[in-house]
Structure formats: structure tokens, C-alpha cells
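Troubleshooting log. The previous structure file for this entry was overwritten by mistake, so regenerating from the original sequence record. Sequence copied from the archived sheet and checked twice against the printout by T.R.
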Amino acid sequence: MLDPPFTVAQFLGVFVDYNAAIWPLQIVAYGLGVLAVVGLWLSGTLAIQVILAVLAFMWAVNGVGYHFLFFAEITPLARVFAAFFVLQSILFATSIMVPNDLRFETRPSFRSAAGLFFIVYAMLFYELLGYWAGHGLMAGPLFGVAPCPTTIFTIGMLLLARGKWVALLSIIPLLWSLIGLAAAIQLGIPEDAGLPAAGIALAIALITGMNGARRDGAVTTKTSSR
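Regenerated output below.
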């Protein structure tokens, strides 16, 4: 892996400035996160739209607020990251407006269990690990307003999602999970270790889902041909 063009102190220093500048948006982000989680157990189109709107908001804040306005001060790559995060926000917003079969459900399965685990990890364990690592409450990545915990939360939600849009909505979070692995190793951010794990879980779920769809399609074809 290539060494980052900045030091760990510079990287964490960005979070100090960013968290101070956007306060109390962190509290708002947690409130919206709780609202999205509650939406998982509510039926109807409105609950789905609320979840997607929350995710769209978080990715927009990360793209414009963190990457473009703050992280870009120490690396030009941040503007590229900002574009991808804004694109992901647009995809979530589009999924609200365009008719589709996207839905969220929890049921006894490994996929649902993994999704709920990563949601809790992003909202609770991520911050506890960061505090244990010495980042402090306002000197490191925070849920909903920083890229890695936001992506872990998003992947958790996508593991609970069903429909044709899930694969499209998963591309950028999967790519960012690879970057999270580099951050965990090179920058010594132990809480980011959960991001590649979440990415692997989502990739397995997507591959398993596609294989299952192919088998169902093959069975349907054979049945109809008789």
C-alpha cells in the first residue's frame, strides 16, 4: 500500500477542526440514525423513504462538509472522495423518487444479524473503540458525520435491504470499505477495522443473493417449459 500524503497527526487534526465547526450536527446525526433504525420495524413507503433520506443526508454531509471543505486541506484526493460521496447521496435520493422494489426487512438470518451488528457497531462500538484508542469524543471520526462510521452504518442498512437497487447502492460503500482497511492499518485507526469486515459481509450477501436469484430463475424456467 502507498503511504498517505499526510501524517496521523494531520489526519486527526482535521477531525478536531471539523467536529468543532459542525457542532452540534453530531447530535442531529445520532438522532437521525435512531430514526432510521426505528424505520426498520415500521411498514410502509414512508418508513423506507425516511431511511433513504437519512442515508442521503449523511453522505451529503460527509461529501461536502468533511471531504470537500476540510479533508481537502491535507490531500487533493479528498475532492475525488467528495464527488463519490455526493454521488452516493444522489443515488439514495433518487431511490426515493424513482419507483422501485427497494425495501428493508429484519428476519432470522445471518444477513439480518450481520446488518444489525454493523448498525450497532457504527453507532456505539465504533465510538467506544475510538475513545479507547485515545481520540477523545471530539478528536476523531464520529457517527453520521465522518466517512467510515457512516459507511459501516450504511452497509448495515444495505444488508437489511432487498430489491434490485441494493447492488447499485452498494458499489461506493464497498469501494470505501477497501479504503477503510488502509486507514486502519496505515493510520492506526483501530475502529476502522470494522469497515472492511462490513464490506466483506455485504459482498458475500450480494453474491449469495445473485446466485439464489439465478437458481430461482432456472427453476422457474424449467417449470414453465414443462
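Residues 17 and 70 are 8 Å apart (CA to CA). Archived copy saved in two places this time.
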